[in-house]
Design a protein that fits this description.
12 strands, Spore Coat Polysaccharide Biosynthesis Protein SpsA, Chain A, 13 helices, four-stranded mixed sheet, alpha/beta
Length: 309
Amino acid sequence: MGVKDFSVDLVYMWVDGNDPAWLAKKQRFMDEKTNIAGRFQDNQELKYSLRSAEKHLPWIRKIFIVTDGQTPSFLDVSHPKIEVIDHSQIIPKENLPLFNSISIEYNIYKIPGLSEHFLLANDDTFVNADLPTSFFFQDGIPVMRMVYNPFMEFKLKLKKALKLRVNTHRLAIENAYKLFKKKFNVFYPISQHHNIDAYLKSDFKAAVEEVFKEELAAVLSNRFRAKTDIQRVLVNYFGLVNKRGILKYVGRKESGRIRVHRTNYQEYIAKYNPQLFCINDSEHATDEHRAQVEPFLKKLFPVKSAFEK
């Protein structure tokens, strides 16, 4: 399959964690003492991520923004490339509301009109260089950029032996590779690179509805992060084992991860100049840290996109 034979869509996961109505709904379902604000905080990243995509990925056919009853205030929803997808359009009613990105992501293949080839992004991911379609798909096959992690199993076993805390994100990765190893007797020493990932819609559908249907059934209803979560790297494993994925180990000049609470954003960009980067918010970041995000992004992507009002 040649580059001219397929189109590519871009899917964003987005939430405005500052919205009072959304906050009230979330609060009804969670423990007030749980500190997960960084997962939902809106620092206006989506606006600048869209600017970066328009500038560097002009070949994208359609952009879908998956939300929970929200629409970004800056967004021109009349733009022909833009479509806002509410959770209710792709997630079964009995599983709503969901605040767990892992659970939500397993439903994205149901987006009406989504192309077979698509990119999955969070609102905190950015494109920092002109990239061709072949950067993400080679002859129609997704390029899966991963971090080489040969001691992944050993580290997790050691932490458990020492009774150290293992966060739910790492547990979700462990659950993914254990499940895949059990089904296919293959272990991939890799973890995701916290950035824009390439997928085939048919692989998501097959993983959820056929190959791992029984194991993923419970995960799909996990409203918040849980120890039973199974990270979507499972779909990458499935693609790789079926030769529907090209494994590429990624370096900092290709994909960077900037942590909000470290605030050395510009220095990181100047040092590595990565083709892709994410700004990773977390419970470690304060409002003072977050206040520095938008000025940095505005300087990096100053030109208003056609997707803005």
